[in-house]
Amino acid sequence: MRFPLLFYALFLSSVISYSQDAKKIMHSSFYKCQAVKNGYYEMTKHMKFMSSSDTLQTAFHCSYSKLRDDTLYTFAFNYRGFFRDKYFGDFMYTGKDFAKLSSTDSSAEILSTERWAAEIKRLHQNYTFYTPLTSLDSWPMKHDSDIIDPAQSFNLLKEEMINGRLAYHVRVIETPKVKSNEGTRDLLYTYDYWINKKDLIPIQYSLQFDVLVKADTLHQYEKFTLGKYELNNLKDQSMLSLNSIPNYYNVHGYISSHTSGILPLETLAPELDLNTLQGERIKARDLKGKLVLVNFFYTSSFPSTRAMGSFQRLYTTYKDKGLMVIGIDTYDAVAGDVSIFLKQKGITFPAAMGRKELAAAFRIWTYPTFYLINQKGKIIYSSYSFGPTAEKKLEELIKLKL
What we know:
Blueprint: H1 2-34, E1 38-48, E2 56-66, E3 75-83, E4 86-93, E5 97-102, E6 107-112, H2 113-123, H3 131-134, H4 144-147, E7 152-162, E8 165-174, E9 184-196, E10 202-213, E11 216-231, E12 250-253, E13 274-275, E14 281-282, H5 284-287, E15 291-297, H6 302-318, E16 323-329, H7 335-345, E17 351-353, H8 356-361, E18 369-373, E19 379-383, E20 385-386, H9 388-401
Parallel strand pairs: 6-12, 15-16, 16-17
Antiparallel strand pairs: 1-2, 1-11, 2-3, 3-4, 4-5, 5-6, 7-8, 8-9, 9-10, 10-11, 12-20, 13-14, 15-18, 18-19
């Protein structure tokens, strides 16, 4: 009888020891992740949905820097995504703007937080990050309150090689506290972590959720694996700025799904009656018989500010030949701030504040939107994006119509 009791005692002490070791490793790894401020990583994600037997693979290359006071993403980032090894886009968040870029057609769509915060927050759900390194709480890493939670058990399994790195394998099994929800019952949550022995960074983790739906037990599985990574050593912070967008990209503001599009060509443009910020009055009759370029902008829109220099160049080049350029800000509230902005940008063409009714008449949903209006008052060119292609076509039309 003494041998079995001794064996059991040794076995129990071994289990307790391994559990304590697992908790210590997890504790150290969590605070290692918390100390990360910025970095670069290449990640692969494998996922199997409950309703599917297939496993989907996506990959992301991401540079990032944490933003403590940000309420949308809590970190600035610039990343490139691949689905089954096929590129699907670049995405960027600066803290002030979100950008969707495509290298296949050299375009960039910009959403400012000032105007599109709710939309950016919705988009957040569509993107995947290596959250132990990017999120402020390093989710799904377990920390102090989890370690003392009796509903979660910690186990240290055998060491394994992950991408050439030797790692501790820690498994955490959690019994859900809420067991039923509209006919479903959460059975078990299983978290696996592979923690690099050298630097205690989690280089792989997986999540499995077991759910009972009526009589069927369904499983959802996700696994995230780090390839290359560099931490607290982001050498080029400029890549987290919209200025990193190549100059040859066509940049435009966000187009809401609720918009009805800009005004069609060959239609009469709405009449203008404006008091300019330069102290002049522009009436509809003043524009008759003139070629008019109307540019809608606002001061904190990156695509708008990027295009302003080109509109100024066209104005300087062709004003003496009959081109009239008018800038209209239908978004900002303080005229004095807009005047300062124009002066800082070296803008000399007439600019005015416009009411929401004017924005609606011209169907302004994004910035910049511009119209080229001929001598008969008809729209002959329009666009909600601006880049080298649009600029070239616009200038060709201006030369042709003057």
